[in-house]
């Protein structure tokens, strides 16, 4: 360790992810961070000296990862205007048209990023509006705060107001401009995502371009699938497909870098193909309840396992707080007969999701070389074991709060 490169030293107790839903409670650590924002040393405390002692504040842990949410829906949260398709038409699309104005987008990007920080979310897969200029503003704010993200415009060329639809060529040049400027920026902490919104808003030509573009540049893909029975039937009918997943498969959109939001109404054959493709599920349980879309069959996805991450799906999800969405994931699994451990839920919402989505801080953030991205959560004094702490963090919003957020070793909340 080069001691001269150390810029800050922390003393803390930490909840350290050990993989596969296991955690270690490390009671008294000395953690040093270097000027690049990476961990330079982690040792047991032996009076090394520190700039900040966090033991009274709470427990240090990896930040939350929101696997699926919509930046241009920040201001339309909680609009109970019906099931998915009417809700999109009445509450979502009118708001998303406002993002043609880049200044408006910048204003909302500020609110959006602050909302992430306030609840301890340090990395996310973010859908933008259809406008590349709005994604540009979002990337700029993510970068200046040091948040990690995969983000990009939603691609749509049909079934939406004309201000939100964009031809295939224009969509590709928007992606290209964003890729050149932002993909891999901030030492790879920012990535461009390819986001055909869902089958009902995309022509075959647009999805073809999306699949090819993502493959050429090795970009992550995300889309919605099987959120409602009506949407499922309409997608199969429009594309003449025997099931919904087949629509995306045709265009090379389903692979190990694909994040599929909702996945409520998939059949067994689709689940088998999704597993084989190693695609990742963004489970959005609160959104599913709010729109009345149905319940994802969590119990059927444990053995053999599907890679599960959790998304707030703001604004169909009612809030940015991933702890609330993990609680909703617990309730959803329980309705299907599966009682999830809080340690598992915490892993799905933090380090497990970071690893699945290829964020650089994979695994423990308390190891030499990791990004110093972490949060400090105030837990009740009586919570002294891993189990008690993870229960409190996931299930007890009254006595448990996110007290601080560090990105690249710098306090941001
Ligand atoms: N399907 C297509 N677009 C959307 C969206 O914005 N939110 C949700 N929940 N589902 C969608
Ligand atoms: Zn969504």
Notable characteristics:
single chain, 413 residues, alpha/beta, Urease, subunit C, domain 1, TIM Barrel, 2 domains, nine-stranded parallel beta sheet, eight-stranded mixed beta sheet, 14 helices, 17 strands, globular, binds guanine, binds zinc ion
Explain this structure.
This protein is of the alpha/beta class and 413 residues long. It folds into 2 domains: 3-62 and 364-411, Urease, subunit C, domain 1 (Roll); 64-356, TIM Barrel (Alpha-Beta Barrel), CATH 3.20.20. The chain has helices at 84-97, 102-118, 132-145, 168-182, 185-188, 204-217, 229-239, 244-250, 268-277, 285-291, 322-335, 342-349, 351-356, 386-395, and strands spanning 6-19, 22-34, 39-44, 52-53, 59-61, 64-70, 121-127, 148-152, 154-155, 190-196, 220-225, 258-262, 280-283, 307-310, 374-378, 401-407, 410-411. The strands form 2 sheets. Strands 6, 7, 8, 9, 10, 11, 12, 13 and 14 form a 9-stranded parallel beta sheet that branches. β7 (121-127), α3 (132-145) and β8 (148-152) form a beta-alpha-beta unit. α2 packs parallel to α3 (132-145). The radius of gyration is 21 Å and the shape is globular. The mean pLDDT is 97. The structure holds guanine (GUN) and zinc ion (ZN). Guanine binds at residues 70, 84, 88, 92, 197-198, 224, 227, 287, 313, 316.
């Amino acid at each position: 360790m080069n001691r001269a490169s150390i810029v800050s030293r922390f003393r803390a107790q930490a909840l350290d992810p050990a993989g596969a839903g296991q955690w270690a409670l490390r009671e008294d650590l000395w953690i040093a961070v270097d000027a690049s924002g990476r961990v330079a040393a982690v040792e047991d405390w032996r009076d090394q000296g520190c700039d900040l002692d966090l033991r009274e504040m709470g427990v240090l842990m990896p930040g939350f990862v929101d696997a699926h949410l919509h930046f241009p829906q920040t201001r339309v949260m909680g609009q109970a205007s019906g099931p998915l398709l009417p809700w999109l038409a009445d509450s979502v699309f009118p708001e998303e048209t406002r993002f043609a104005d880049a200044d408006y987008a910048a204003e909302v990007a500020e609110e959006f990023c602050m909302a992430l920080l306030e609840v301890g979310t340090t990395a996310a897969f973010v859908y933008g509006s259809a406008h590349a200029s709005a994604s540009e503003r979002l990337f700029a704010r993510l970068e200046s705060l040091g948040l990690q993200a995969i983000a990009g415009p939603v691609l749509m060329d049909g079934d939406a107001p004309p201000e939100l639809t964009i031809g295939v060529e224009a969509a590709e040049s928007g992606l290209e401009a964003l890729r050149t400027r932002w993909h891999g920026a901030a030492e790879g902490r920012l990535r461009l995502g390819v986001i055909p919104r869902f089958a009902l808003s995309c022509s075959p030509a647009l999805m073809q371009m999306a699949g090819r573009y993502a493959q050429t540049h090795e970009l992550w893909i995300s889309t919605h699938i099987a959120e409602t029975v009506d949407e499922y039937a309409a997608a199969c009918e429009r594309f003449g497909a025997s099931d919904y997943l087949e629509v995306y498969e045709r265009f090379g959109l389903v692979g190990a870098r694909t994040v599929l939001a909702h996945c409520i109404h998939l059949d067994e054959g689709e689940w088998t193909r999704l597993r084989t493709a190693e695609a990742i599920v963004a489970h959005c349980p609160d959104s599913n309840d709010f729109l009345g879309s149905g319940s994802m069959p969590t119990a059927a996805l444990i053995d053999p396992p599907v890679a599960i991450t959790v998304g707030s799906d703001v604004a169909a999800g009612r809030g940015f707080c991933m702890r609330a969405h993990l609680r909703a994931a617990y309730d959803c699994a329980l309705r299907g007969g599966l009682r999830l451990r809080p340690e598992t839920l915490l892993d799905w919402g933090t380090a497990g999701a970071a690893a699945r989505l290829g964020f650089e801080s994979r695994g423990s953030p308390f190891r030499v070389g990791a990004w110093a991205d972490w949060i400090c959560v105030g837990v009740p004094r009586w919570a002294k074991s891993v189990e008690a702490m993870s229960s409190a963090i996931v299930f007890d919003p009254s006595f448990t709060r996110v007290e601080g957020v560090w990105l690249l070793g710098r306090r941001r909340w």
